């Protein structure tokens, strides 16, 4: 897969992530329940003690992460690729932790959180693959 295709895939995933996280930030601050096909699952997750980290909504942290990923995917160069991979891998790890909490502590599933976790997993794969497949410049290899 070419760098252009990986970058394009990453951009699509990041835009979708902004949409999902943006929606969750909106419902958080509007004080409404998210639309949910799972009976009371989203409400239970969104009102749990794990919905905030040090007083900051987890959805807002996700939105910031997706926006950083968008910027890093749009920027040229190795530092941008490294930043994208780092943010995506941290996001993946945090999403895995939150999914664990949904399943084994909160005992509820939020479809929006699952969607975000899937998007972040895809971004971790794409951004890491993009970083690892980038050829090292000849001067740096010496």
Question: What keywords describe this structure?
Answer:
142 residues, mainly alpha, de novo design (two linked rop proteins), two-stranded antiparallel ribbon, 3% strand
Describe this entry's structure for a reader:
This protein is mainly α and 142 residues long. The chain has a single domain, classed as Up-down Bundle (de novo design (two linked rop proteins)). It has six helices and two strands; from the N terminus they run ααββαααα. It has helices spanning 3-30, 41-46, 58-74, 78-106, 111-133, 138-141, and strands spanning 52-53, 56-57. The protein has a two-stranded antiparallel ribbon with strand order 1-2. Helix 1 (3-30) packs antiparallel against helix 3, helix 1 runs antiparallel to helix 5 and helix 3 (58-74) packs antiparallel against helix 4. The longest helix has 29 residues, at 78-106. The chain is elongated, with a radius of gyration of 17 Å. The two termini are 27 Å apart. The model has no long low-confidence stretch (mean pLDDT 93).
Strand residue content: under 5%
Radius of gyration: 17 Å
Which fold name fills CATH's third level, the topology? de novo design (two linked rop proteins)
Tell me the number of structural domains. Answer: 1
Provide the spatial order of strands within the biggest beta sheet.
Answer: 1-2
Q: What is the number of beta strands?
A: 2
Which stretches of 5+ consecutive residues score pLDDT under 50?
Answer: none
Number of helices: 6
């Amino acid at each position: 897969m070419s760098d252009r295709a990986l970058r394009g895939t990453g951009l699509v995933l990041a835009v979708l992530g902004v949409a999902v996280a943006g929606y969750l930030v909106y419902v958080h601050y509007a004080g409404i329940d998210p639309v949910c096909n799972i009976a009371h699952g989203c409400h239970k997750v969104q009102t749990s003690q794990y919905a905030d980290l040090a007083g900051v909504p987890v959805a807002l942290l996700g939105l910031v992460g997706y926006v950083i990923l968008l910027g890093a995917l749009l920027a040229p160069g190795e530092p941008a690729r490294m930043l994208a991979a780092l943010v995506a891998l941290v996001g993946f790890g945090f999403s895995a932790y939150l999914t664990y909490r949904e399943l084994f502590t909160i005992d509820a599933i939020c479809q929006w959180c699952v969607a975000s976790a899937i998007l972040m997993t895809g971004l971790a794969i794409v951004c890491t693959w993009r970083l690892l497949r980038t050829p090292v410049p000849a001067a740096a290899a010496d």
